[in-house]
Amino acid sequence: MRATKALIHIDRLKSNILMVREHLRKNKNVAICMPVKADAYGHGAVRIAEEAIRCGVDYLAVATVDEGLELRNAGISAPVLLFSQFLKEEAVETARARLIPFIGDAEAAELFAAAVASGGCSRLPVFLKIDTGMGRMGCRPEDAPALAAFIASFPTLEYAGTATHLAVSDSAEPRDIEYTGLQLTRFKSALDGIRGKGLSPGIVTAANTGATLYYPEAWFDMARPGILLYGYPPDITNSAEPRFSGPRFAVRPVMELESAVVAIKQVKRGESVSYGRTWIAEHDTYTGILPLGYGDGLPRGLSGKFSVIINGKSYPGVGRICMDQCMVDLGASPDIERFAAASVFGGEMPGALDAAEIARRTGTIPYEICCGITKRVPRVYTN
Fold first, then answer.
1. How far, in Å, CA of 357 to CA of 48, rounded?
2. Which of 45, 95, 124, 189 has its CA 20 to 30 A from that of 363?
């Protein structure tokens, strides 16, 4: 196995799920849907899905039909929501895999109803998707009652749920709080219209990570916390808004990226390290070479902005991150042996970085850091 690996801490995953479950027990009927799209945010979809179901997660969610098929081929029979639009040629496969698509228009409803019939299935559930202000998939709120009735008219479709997605529920900005309230008002109005047609909206779901934490009024029947379950809450600071001013939700990063010092080199004062000669030694020192680079998902933009933990101490990265390697400054008299383990992010030692801090330093979000760890980095599951 490679020196560079992603340690997936199953005990932390379980702890995060149980913590969210306890949080949602303020309303004991709230179910949990865990997204395992994008290979479970880089953590490994099948194993994460299996552990999530064991921990009592009620639904799983994917973004593509192939992601759903991976779960089914692994023997996972739990309900799986399909967030994104299936293609016409994928409709029958979607039905045969018993994936539950979000339907946001009449054409998609017709296509899936026909696919269920031609796929040899009797009747399959679908969720109506309403666009209350995200600007992606879904019907307009005022069109939701008619589309709900249209879905319910097909003998091959079970109108099983109604969903929307909140755009800024993780923001403490006053205008964003107002916008989230507007989205929820639109959603509730659409639900009233659906009920006014004599239809049940089924399982009602709106809460993503932000709303799971800060908007109990958005919980309805099922919450869909994503990055929260993988260990990263929104970074809300200095907010006077009461809903955001409680204690930080103490979830733990599930992924820890680890490598090793595979070589130690002396660098003389005035010598440079890596492409572009962006780092020149100010004094005699030693560098450690790690077999980890942007080909593994460590962003090149993090060059000179990161550190690793080796034997409990922090060592700064130096020079540009290469495709397959990066370098750290071990100091003038290192007491580190060759092949010593180096924790890059997600460890719990003092001074350790996490994906959120790396994201801040590179101008992105922790989702992208975790999802970006490439397939050539083996996932090692540990308790």
1. 24
2. 45
The residues of the chain scoring below 50 in pLDDT are: none
CA atoms within 13 A on the CB side of 246: 9
- The Cα–Cα gap between 154 and 197 comes to 16
Q: Where in the chain is the domain with CATH 2.40.37.10?
A: 255-382
The CATH classification of domain 255-382, taken from the options 3.40.50.1010, 1.10.10.60, 2.40.37.10, 1.20.1740.10: 2.40.37.10
**pLDDT value, residue 383:** 85
Distance of CA 45 to the CA centre of its chain: 11
Residue 88 a catalytic site member: no
Q: Tell the residue number behind the tokens 């849907």, with chain if given.
A: 33
Q: Which residues contact 178 (CB under 8 A, 6 or more apart)?
A: none
Render pLDDT for 251-271 as a digit per residue (tens, 0 to 9): 999 999 999 999 999 999 999
Tokens matching residue 296: 């593994």
For residue 230, report the phi and psi dihedrals to the nearest 5 degrees. Answer: -90, 0
What does 200-247 look like in DSSP terms, one character per residue? ---EEEEE-HHHHHH-GGG-TTEE---GGGGT------S--SGGG-SP
| Alpha-carbon distance values, 122 to 68, 111, 201, 224, 333 (Å) | 20, 15, 21, 28, 72
From the candidates 88, 197, 275, 375, give the one annotated as an active-site residue: 275
**What's the pLDDT tens digit per position in 108-138?**
999 999 999 987 778 999 999 999 999 999 9
**DSSP element (H, E) containing 19:** helix 10-24
Look at the block and give the residue holding tokens 């023997």. Answer: 75
CATH 3.20.20.10 residue ranges for the chain: 10-244
Q: Which of 1, 16, 19, 89 is nearest to 48 (CA)?
A: 16
Distance CA 379, CA 358 (A): 20
CA distance 178 to 226: 23
Q: In what order do the strands lie in the sheet with 307-310?
A: 263-267, 285-290, 326-331, 313-318, 307-310, 341-345, 255-260, 5-9, 379-382
How far apart CA 344 and CA 351 sit, in angstroms, is 11
Catalytic residue among 5, 37, 230, 315: 37
10-244 — its CATH code?
A: 3.20.20.10
Torsion of CA 71, 38, 47, 347, to 10 degrees: -170
Is position 215 annotated as part of the catalytic site? no
